[in-house]
Design brief:
This protein has a domain of 124 residues: Histidine kinase-like ATPase, C-terminal domain (Heat Shock Protein 90), CATH 3.30.565.10. The protein is 78% helix and 6% strand. A 5-stranded mixed beta sheet has the order 1-2-3-5-4, covered by helices on one side. The longest helix has 91 residues. 32% of the residues are buried.
Amino acid sequence: MAGQQLRDSLIDIANNSAGHQKVKALCDLCWEYRLINPDSALMFGHQALELSRLSGNKVGIAQSYNDLGIVYLDKGSLSRALEYFTNSLILRKELSDSAGIAASYNKIGIVYQKEGKLDLALENQMNALNIYEALKKALWISYTQNNIAIINFNIGNLETALEYHHRALSTRLKLNDEYGVAASYGNIANVELALSDTVLAIKNYENALQIFRILKNNEAESVQLSNLGSIYLNKKDYPLALIYLNKSLEIREELKDKKAIASSLLKLGKLYLETEKYEKAYEFLSRAKLLSSEIGVIAEQLQSYNDLSKLFISLANKDSSYKYLNLYTSTIDSLYSARLDQQIIDAQTKYDVERKDKDLQLYRSKTALAEAKLKQRKLEIWLLIFVVTSISGLAIFMLYRRKQKQKEALDKARMEHKHKMIKAVIDGQEVERRKIARELHDGIGQTLSGIKLQWSNIQNSIEENLNILGVDVMLDDAVGEVRNLSHQMLPKELEQFGLLPAIEGFLEHRFEGEQINCGFQHLRLEGRLRADIELGVFRIVQELCGNVLKHAKADNLSIQILRRSENLVIIIHDDGIGFDQKNIRSDGIGLMNIESRVDALKGFVNFESSPGKGTKVTIRIPLDEET
């Protein structure tokens, strides 16, 4: 409930604020929604990014990239996450934001670690550590030291991993970070166990166990108990191993952690198998098999098949032993055919193949040579199927890529043809406008002016009459209307002086006598633009201003035109009655004219409106493309 109240409050702030405050609220919403609704989190993050870009807010852009990268990382989109974290890092370097730079290095390192690119992961984590040490941020120093240790452990640099785990432990002890201290003890024990120093490993597992018990972290406590039980099981100290493993199983059953329960059952089954208590061994291994099959954890499932095969070999039951060994090998085969995640396959296969070779060697010593040959034949067939499948998949992929390229080329050609058609229509309209304007000015306009002159000559010679005198006013109105219509269709200021004077002249004339305040601002628009862009923008402003006067019932209208990078940005905002965008007519002439002109200039238009809250129209037109 508190979380929902926070999110509602942030939404209210985002809807009723602007500038940096709105960007911050949107970034906070992206963070708050990342684990609840990733799609909503991405929506808020991209809104923050776009708003920051429009206002040139580099801090907001960097934060938006960072938050979007975290969402993509949680979703497993590692390439997108890396792209956004890298963009954030570049901006934070420009801003000299040391803490932000370190955080970006840390997250980039995490992405590379998940991709298995351990050298790059280590390089970025070291960069983060150097900055955190310079800033004396102890908590983040300990996290980064821990990450560096884990990466070195995965690479196989055990001594270096041990060194960084001890450094992380020292930092956490100074911070009185009890959970971090316990985690470091457990990590140190893992490395010492890999170095075959079981005495120190047992000591550090017990240190971790003691702290986790004080913190009442049952899950972490069960892990340390299981680790200690495994050590004593490997040392053949079965009574101690039984105590630790039973206690770990008891906690895991209380927590209802099925995967962890299956792991404990397997270890107890192995203990009873080694102590030749075959009935107990069968009981625990069978439970582990059923539970691992139920929840679909392959590693535990394979271990149960393997240990049950060993159990029946010990009981001289070759049929049952072969049955479970066959289940073991067929399960491995199904892993490949199901095309599981590549990293999991690589790691699991290496482990399984080593175990499989040992089990097959034991089985060959107790079974006939013919069964070994059958297994070899099965492996060869599987490899052949794998090769054929890979080649077929590659061929299908190449065919698909070729079709995609053909489709992209066709779509591009269609789009170019569409732009040419729209431009031809608009160019034709402008030619007709110029022709009509000239006809109005040179034809009807000149005729009306001649009539006006002749009327002035004869007006004094006729008897004064109210109706006849009214003709003079009507002629003045007709001449004025023809002049205005000619000017609107072919504004002289646009051809002679450019876009800005033409718009200023249009606004001054159009809003004369109207009960609406109109403001016009422009920025970084030195010199003339291309003729087609100037004409298109002028017509768009004409159309939008006409819509505001006809429909908006607004008191204020703001028009902004600015150059940003290689784009021309037009923002027109009124405080009128607005409209419901869901009910907007897609066949309205005004809207179609605007969209057609923007499309002809290869631009983008966005309408933002809601009833009672006015309307904002944002148009972005590229200045570096030929239309």
